[in-house]
User: Fold this.
Amino acid sequence: MKPNSPTLSPQETRERILEAAVKVFASKGYHDTKVDDIVSESNTSKGSFYFHFPSKQDIFLALVDTFAEMLEARLKDRLSSSTSGLERVELALRVCLETFGQYRALAKIALVQATGLGNAFEEKRRVVNERFIQFIKENLDEAVADGSIPALDTEVAASAWIGALNEVVMRWIYTGQPDPERSLPALRKIFLLSLEIPVERINK
Assistant:
């Protein structure tokens, strides 16, 4: 398809540019990626790029937001049918790992490449992390309230869970091992033991 094809709406053009950016950032990294690379991969034009994104930094940050919003939407959708607080916490772990596994390139951008790129990127990472810490905390609070788990400092627990999850996923992104499917049973056991869940319940 030729650049600036009249068959593409502005939203479709934006999505095409974002999809191209994922591929280029994932393969070249932030610093080595040029706007021209994204334009070429998306088969659009510089005018189209700058219409939607003022700079390379803006599209990179948009990709971090895209991944965070997709993960949050998946979590809310999958957890909406669970009534037990503990079930919701367990399902949240599964959904996170499934999403990381399906969208490795986006996860690489959001979790790895955004590290050490300056204040704007660090602030974005902090905000995204805080969103998910709060999400886990709220579900842990529900689990405490319904008696699924003993009372604990849910904010500290949620922070520790997100930190451990990030570390496992980042290692997988760097090395390819252990993959999310392999990591799930061990992480589940570690997390549930940290909540003082009896081993016999964990092994069911």
Confidence is low (pLDDT under 50) at residues 1-5. The chain has two domains: 1-53, 61-202. The first helix runs from residue 10 to 28. The radius of gyration is 19 Å.
